[in-house]
Write a structure and sequence with these properties.
220 residues; mainly alpha; 2 strands; 3% strand
């Protein structure tokens, strides 16, 4: 049955049920992990330690800090605030990452609803594909990178509905942060810019303007 044709009450109930399934799936993944560390976690933690000292570095062979161009600064900066400055335990940091991810999922769902895609349909799709949670329940950048990427797309969808320049600025900023957390997601850039053009109303000059705004903010 098409969820859009259901009474609003039943749509809301379906939405809640699917979100409950998502929460249970996350709980099952966490309960069966056996730990919160990932192979790259020690590297991120080391970078976070040096960042609070004003250095983007790791320990070299002689134990002294050396520059580290291989890993981006986004996630180590997040860890430096959470662990080095706020002294949050690892489980609390992972919980915070999951909350950020769930908020991004809810924001994305709301943006889709503005374009006629029912909320339960999106929640059901997330519930049917829980595998990203395997990578989002450890000390690794995937949860926040995924949240930022969804926020980028959601802002662009909102721009198509509201046509406000501030929404484009938010989208470009989020996508720039995406690349700072997970550089491989720079490959999503063409799709992001096409979506910016597609959601712009009016002549091609407006579409080009949207692409330029998103590109500049992401680059900065």
């Amino acid at each position: 049955m098409d969820a859009a044709r259901l009474p609003p009450r039943y749509v809301g109930i379906l939405n809640v049920l699917f979100w409950m399934v998502i929460i249970v799936q996350i709980g099952v993944v966490v309960a069966n992990r056996g730990g919160l560390l990932f192979p790259d976690t020690p590297h991120y933690l080391e970078q976070a330690h040096y960042l609070v000292q004003g250095q983007f570095a790791v320990a070299g062979p002689d134990g002294k800090p050396v520059p580290d161009p291989a890993f981006p600064v986004g996630y180590p900066l997040f860890l430096s605030v959470c662990i080095e400055l706020l002294h949050l335990p690892f489980p609390v940091v992972v919980t915070l990452q999951l909350l950020i991810l769930l908020l991004a999922l809810a924001f994305f769902q709301r943006a889709l609803a503005k374009h006629g895609i029912p909320g339960p349909a999106f929640a059901a799709a997330v519930a049917l594909y829980p595998f990203p949670f395997l990578y989002c329940t450890v000390l690794a950048p995937e949860a926040i990178a995924l949240a930022l990427l969804m926020a980028t797309v959601a802002f662009l969808l909102c721009f198509g509905h509201e046509n406000r320049t501030s929404t484009l600025i938010a989208a470009g900023t989020c996508y720039g942060l995406v690349v700072l957390f997970r550089p491989s997601l720079v490959s999503a850039g063409p799709a992001v810019l096409l979506l910016a053009a597609f959601t712009s109303r009016g002549a091609w000059s407006f579409k080009v303007r949207s692409i330029v705004i998103v590109s500049l903010l992401a680059a900065i």
